[in-house]
Amino acid sequence: MDTRPVELEASGAAWVFTAIVAAAFVVVAIWCCIYSIRNRDAIPLLMLGSGLLSVGLESVVDTMGKVWYATDNPWVVYTAIGVPQPAFLLLGYTLFWGGTVYIGSRFVQRGTDLWRIFAVVFAMDLFVEYVGASMLNVGVYYDFSPFTLFEFPLWWAFVNGAVACFGIWLLITLEDVLHGWRRLAILVVAPTAFGGTHAICAWPVWVTLHSDTPQWLGWLAGVYAIAMAFGVVALAKKLISDHNELIALRSRATADAPVRPATQTATP
């Protein structure tokens, strides 16, 4: 039986939410453009494109995680798998999974602990969800979902935090091995991190949400999702550390390599 709340109406303040997301997007997009021009580095712009591509997976997690967006939200761009997709999703994904992952990777490369990045993204996600869903009704999490507090299932925030960390690891790894036109492959970072992490962490919750299993299994699935989110972050941190050690070893090996004297050609 279809239990989607198709009658949901967004608050009139939904325009404010869209404007806030749009303003944040503009700020990050301008920064990425300036950085790319000054440093002749296309990666920030590629990451914005990567974030935009990942929005294609939104309707999948919406359906599996039982999320619905009001049909009267400002600028509903398209409908996918029956779920309306407002403009703030396109802007938000570009900003969140493109810009935030890129900026987070710069902080990690400068020594910031990956768990701090996870905590920041976790807090950002809570803010966006509670403002957008709980306060302004731009969307709703319907039916039962484990660890729901004030209309938002908290396990989502743990998984989304892990998405950012997965993306940071993937970006750091790829940008060191891809050069020239091959860097276009960086466009896969956000979709891979988003889709992969949600599939790894959330699949038991999805199964319980779409079956007649008892709710206690849903709570157990929620525990699994949170535990796996922590596992993804821990693995990403270890892989980044191993990657940095390998880069350092290569640098030392290059620096310690003996310099061969130039061969002198005899003058006839």
List the helices and strands and how they pair.
Blueprint (H helix, E strand, L loop, with lengths): L13 H26 L3 H12 L3 H8 L1 E3 L6 E5 L2 E4 H23 L4 H22 L3 E3 L6 E2 L2 E2 L1 H23 L11 H21 L5 H42 L12
Antiparallel strand pairs: 1-4, 2-3, 5-6
Can you describe this structure?
This protein has 8 helices and 6 strands. Strands 1-4 form a two-stranded antiparallel sheet. The mean pLDDT is 91. α6 (155-177) runs parallel beside α8 (215-256). With 268 residues, the protein is mainly alpha-helical. It has one domain.
Determine the N-to-C terminus distance: 94 Å
Rg from Cα: 22 Å
Report the biggest beta sheet as strand number plus sense, adding barrel if it closes. Answer: 2 strands, antiparallel
Q: How many distinct folded domains? A: 1
**How many helices does DSSP assign?**
8
Number of DSSP strand runs? 6
Query: What sequence of helices (H) and strands (E) makes up the elements?
Result: HHHEEEHHEEEHHH
Low-confidence stretches: none
- Alpha-beta classification: mainly alpha
Helix content: 55-70%
Main sheet: strand order: 1-4
3D shape = globular
Output mean pLDDT. Answer: 91
Strand content: 5-15%
